[in-house]
Amino acid sequence: MKRLVNQFGLPLLAKELIEQSARKRTFVIRVVYAALLFFAAFLMFYEELRIGTASPMAVLGKGRELFAMLVALQFTGVYFFMPAMTCGVLTQEKERSSLQLLFLTRLGPWTILFEKLAGRLIPMLFFLMLSLPLLAFAYTLGGLSLGYLLTGVWLLALAVVQMATLALACSAFFRTTVGAFIWTYLFSLMMFFAPSLFWLAVQSVTGFDVSQAIRSTSSMNFPNWEVMAYVPMFGLAHFMVELRMRAGVIGPLAVHSLLVLVQSGLCLVLARVFIVRRAFLTPRNVMLNVFQVLDRIFLRLNNNRL
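^ thats the sequence. predicted structure below, dont judge the formating
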């Protein structure tokens, strides 16, 4: 029984959460995040609140729009905060030369990855829960269906996992936190907007318009499929297009969910490969390498006889 308890004790996850709770920065970030969230929500809700004070019945049925604004704010927080929170989860161990010590424990590579990942997913869950009072307020106004509510929650959960696994793969590949930080955001931009650039390039070269092709197909004549064509991995776009459609189309959401889950699984596999192969990288000084190349060039020029 003791072995079973130790096996599922999640020691690395406990260490991560204890270290985060001991940092003053953790609580400062939470307060700043909550302040920004509630201030932005106040600015968005101001018109409805002003109308509600004059005529309380006039704001009934506005819950759907307010809920969409809140979820859009949460998407923005996930896309900006989640990579920054996760990109250093393994690179910090490399910089401290402590990743090698983790390999000496009974924890396998998959266990290290999942516990490190959970150590960043749980704090982000707390960030998302900060909006529960605002969501309750939006729900009381009416106009918000259960299906739309569940769609927002599901897409938010997918976005959290999507960004966390991408940042984890970058953290496993790069040696420094700065490199992982920069490339996580660059890969995110490419993942979100590369399909749009591709279709624009195809249209400019061949004249083929994917939007027109989708509209000409009666079974796919919905804005959801256009969003799927241009930004298939961008959850916020899929959520906002649902706001305009009272009758939801499950097909694009199912395809988007499948693509995000496949991408997240692929990032986990890549992280598993990189965590071992790139765990013992030697530090590289870029400027030193540049000067060494220049030194070899000048030495070769000096040795050449005219």
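The radius of gyration is 24 Å.
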